[in-house]
Design a protein that fits this description.
single chain; binds protoporphyrin IX containing FE; mainly alpha
Length: about 50
Amino acid sequence: MKARFPDRAKLRAQVWNAMDNNPGTRMPAFGKYQALSEAEIDAIVDYLYTL
Ligand code: HEM
């Protein structure tokens, strides 16, 4: 994941609102629509960087 997303802000943006990267995405905007809290998104990004 670090190789794919060297910029943490871009990885976080993918989870917060995937539409920023792809307006036609099927991925839910977990942050924008408050499905997850900001702290939960930070925790997910930390986890993704362990992959
Ligand atoms: C917490 C749950 C999720 C996380 C952490 C997550 C994370 C990500 C990440 C990091 C990427 C970028 C992969 C890359 O470019 O190499 C991605 C892409 C994508 N995700 Fe998710 N995802 C989640 C849930 C979902 C769900 C529920 C869906 C669909 C119902 C979904 C659909 C997609 C699609 C279609 C892409 C490809 C790019 C695009 O079409 O926008 N994701 N996801």
